[in-house]
Design brief:
The protein has about 230 residues and is mainly alpha-helical. Helices cover about 80% and strands about 0% of the residues.
Amino acid sequence: MRHNEGHRNQNTAWLRAAVLGANDGIVSTASLLVGIVAAHASHASTLTTGVAALVAGAMSMAAGEYVSVHSQADTENADLERERAELLDDPQAERRELTAIYVGRGLDQQLAEQVAGQLMAHDAIGAHARDELGLGHEAKAKPVQAALSSAASFAVGAALPLLVVVLIPENVLIWWIAGASLLFLALLGGGAARVGGASVLLGAWRVTFWGALAMAITAGVGSQFGTPG
């Protein structure tokens, strides 16, 4: 019977992108909204600014993530092309290189040579990509997927404080935006920590602290530079 193990590090890539996007969406949008409310902007202006922040932020996240991950993909492809050329030029040297890697991981010389030979016979570039370059199929850079997921997670995060603006009256809006956003951040941080196997309380505290600090600073700036209500 096959023994399946679910390792938490398999969640690392998508979890990092999703948490980063949602956290940025909540913090940046909520901070902006708190700042302009503190500056005595009208309810309509606050809502318009929030929508603009959501769209601009999502596009910025998508563009930034695409460029970053595409650069990573270019580097990976260049390394693979060089490895293919080396395999064609001197396969025995590449086999010795792979053997040395397995010896360094604890195999004896004879077994390491056998493993290297069999893996190279099966998939030479795959063996070198995985064991020499540290590139696996699951970790392969995917620029479009990264861009879309980052934009989507940012938009979802930004929509949460924006929803508060739609539902809550103007006279208590700043407190509702701040309170609801901190709650959203705590849930996000705690949930991400739980999925990653870390402390839920610590995960919630980290994102809540920085979110509160960002909103406090922008509220102070807005109250100093805004027009009297």
